[in-house]
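Question (not urgent): is this output format expected?
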Amino acid sequence: MVERGGESAITGQALLRQVKRLFKLWRRAHGGELSRERLAALMRPVRRKVKVLLQAGARSGHKKTRRTCANIIKVERCLSTFVRVRGVEPTNNAAERALRRAVLWRRKSFGTQSGAGSRFVGRILTAVSTLRQQGRDVLEYLARVCAASSEINEGSMRLLPQPP
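Got this back:
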């Protein structure tokens, strides 16, 4: 918004000032200087100001700014989830880190050639990310899955009618 100039820039700069206030308060709370209750209290005026600025932006003469602000207003409550929910941060850094492995894999491998390949990659990358977050050994888990799958396949083969 700031780079759009005019009233968009004014709205964008005002929103950036509120973001700076938000992160200043977050760092204090995260560092133990503020309790969660105090953080919530100090965030109320920031949230109110952001809402007012977004509402003004939604009336902007600039089409992109108007649409951006209107879209943010729809999810505005989500912007302060970190205040209400312990363990949630005001950034998307954890999500970015979780996706990094998949992005790097896709860049190096040029993706997949089929829908089945895409589903496999999605599932295996999800399993790897989940296992790492849980502190579990990925190779051990995958070896157990393959062994279990092999046992199931062998068992189902015994149920098939045998050729004469």
